[in-house]
Specification:
Elements (H helix, E strand, L loop, with lengths): L1 E4 L2 H10 L8 E4 L5 E5 L5 E6 L3 H15 L2 H26 L4 H9 L5 H16 L8 H13 L5 H22 L2 H23 L4 E5 L16 H9 L4 H12 L16
Parallel strand pairs: 4-5
Antiparallel strand pairs: 1-2, 3-4
């Protein structure tokens, strides 16, 4: 999946000069660590830190995959998003109870390659926190997911929408709890810690740092969630074609002379 990105240095210079500069706008692939590394045509290097958690980005990838007709990819992204949301809930709940990253990380590492253990950890912590069992995928949806991911089944669109809706139904109660006042401090700590650690790693390389928020299907930063996958797909389809938008901006930017070639003083009328 790609998102719009641009050179931070070129943007700052354009603001100072009062002249637009669209030459560095591009579409960049979102990497696994959520840090887009960009080198513009003038040699400036920028690291763009995506603020969203992995489960949020995966949920956006799932919706885009449905729009593009890649239903197997959508199933995998929906399933991965829910699993990473489980992990995130465990992480935030541990922080809420005074367990920091240095303590949490080695404990989670023991189960990081075993989804059944991760699910068990989530169920246990959710039960202790809420006094209730979490809503989980029904057995038929688990069987369907496994058939797609492990047996090469080609899902139809309606099956993909149904699976995504099941994921949404499981995710909403978790997101509502994470957005509640009792979790706000721990949630903010973990979010800022993630941004700081990634930013600091790039800053040591002498790279300019920028942060970016992107809209996602499952989202921590909005008060409400969409009530259906179909609604999210329709909303995505109503968005402009960003690839085409970037091409137009790049073409327009090519017609503007660089700052060094611009006349000093007022522009001629």
């Amino acid at each position: 999946m790609k998102t719009i990105s641009s050179c931070m240095t070129c943007t700052q210079e354009a603001l100072k000069s009062g002249m637009p500069d669209f030459s560095s706008i591009t579409m960049s692939r979102i990497p696994d660590d959520g840090v887009i590394k960009l080198t513009c045509n003038r040699g400036h290097k920028t690291a763009i830190i995506i603020q969203q958690e992995k489960f949020e980005i995966l949920s956006a990838m799932a919706i885009k995959a449905i729009v593009d007709g890649y239903y197997r990819d959508a199933i995998a992204s929906f399933a991965g998003s829910l699993e990473r949301l489980y992990e995130f809930f465990v992480r935030v709940t541990c922080r809420k109870n005074g367990i920091n990253t240095s303590t949490f990380a080695p404990a989670w590492k023991e189960m990081s390659n075993q989804s059944e253990r991760q699910l068990g950890a989530f169920i246990g912590i959710y039960l202790v926190e809420t006094g209730q069992s979490p809503q989980l995928l029904h057995r038929e949806q688990i069987k369907f997911r496994n058939a797609v991911i492990h047996k090469g089944k080609f899902p139809e669109r309606d099956e993909t929408i149904k699976f995504g809706q099941s994921v949404l139904d499981c995710a909403v109660p978790i997101l509502q709890r994470l957005k509640s006042e009792s979790y706000s401090s721990a949630l903010q700590e973990i979010t800022m810690e993630s941004i700081f650690n990634r930013s600091n790693a790039e800053r040591k390389k002498g790279v300019n740092i920028s942060t970016m928020a992107m809209p996602t299907f499952l989202c921590l930063c909005t008060a409400e969630q969409p009530n259906s996958v179909e609604t999210a797909v329709a909303n995505y389809m109503a968005q402009p074609d960003y690839e085409e938008f970037v091409k137009k901006m790049q073409a327009f930017g090519a017609t503007i002379p660089p700052a060094s070639a611009r006349p000093i003083g007022p522009l001629p009328v």
